[in-house]
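I hope you will forgive my troubling you with a question about protein structure. I set the record out below, with my sincere thanks for your time.
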Amino acid sequence: MNTVVFRGTVVLPDAVLERGAVVCENGRISAVGEDVATPAGAEVVESVYVAPGFVEIHTHGGGGADVMDGTAEAVLTVCRSHARHGTTTIFPTTSTASPERIRRMIDACLEARGGWQPGPDGARVAGVHLYGPYFAEEKLGCHPAEGRRDPDPAEYEALLDRGVVRIATCAAELPGAAPFYRAAAARGCLVTCGHSNASWAEMAAGFEAGMRHVDHFWCAMSSIASVRERFGFPMQASMAEFVIANPEMSTEVIADLEHLAPDLLEFAYRMKGPDRLCIVSDASRALDMPSGEYVFGPLDAGESFTSDGRVGRAGDTLASSVTGQDRMVRNILASTTASLCEAVHMASLTPARLAGIADEVGSLAPGKRADVLVMSRELEVERVFLAGEELSLELS
């Protein structure tokens, strides 16, 4: 591989180097600093901003494909679509579906990862997010109801034993949630609660079993009002209060400005900070596609929704986003008091650390993979490098 030197304002997790440089050799970062010499024969890439590739821990589709379509080509189509938006590491995310379809999706991810090449294939598959099917009936959102079920040890133990599931979700109030959490935690997964109507007490029980994260804050999750509908008076605290009160809990926001208004993004940032808050796209197959009718989940068995180019809608329910991480980083920067470093941090190092891969990706540091973004003054992604090789796809 050629040696590449990126020069510009380098975005680090807690600082910017105004006249910085990042040296990449043999697919790895070898040096970062302001007084870094250019090795002989190196390619020099000048940029306004040099940033780490983004890490996506929660997304379903893009470019017309959904990972639940169950083929390696569908997974790679999604990887290419997200790479156009600066995502270089991705965790394809399941939806509610039959056991067979979920197994097929995992097979497809393993196949896509096994033959992956950094130039043509887009974002690197770092693992699978086992998201559906263990959701609360009343918190399904746009996920197909017929694919929902309570956790079954025979099913999830077999899936976890595949060795590719790195993030595992279950609604905390479901029968069998605690054993699921313990099994996932024992395998080193980021253990999360999502699409749940759990109370504080149920969250606390989940926490004891190893749950440490909540999916897309305020979306398809309990509130004081919804918990009151379950338990009556006196009113009890919900997932939101538990996450805010517990410093060990992390969460994520869909920062497309369609799911959450700027004031909620600011509140989440102030309450959890950049080390405990992730930016996720939760994107559907309509990412990078024209407005129109689409299917969430498997193409032949999912739920219909409409994209207007801003967000997906299924009736009066939002159906995932159609926005990449690059725009979400810009939205966070424009809509909150987060700094540039912090906005990038929430899309890169924080999700990498929570998913257990921060020694490899998530920041521009010697020894890490040379996953580098070249960005304009407006933080538009201009060029993407994965393992030091430039993405060969046309950027949107």
Remarks:
- The chain has a mean pLDDT of 96.
- The chain has two domains: 1-52+362-396, 54-359.
- The first helix runs from residue 72 to 83.
- The radius of gyration is 20 Å.
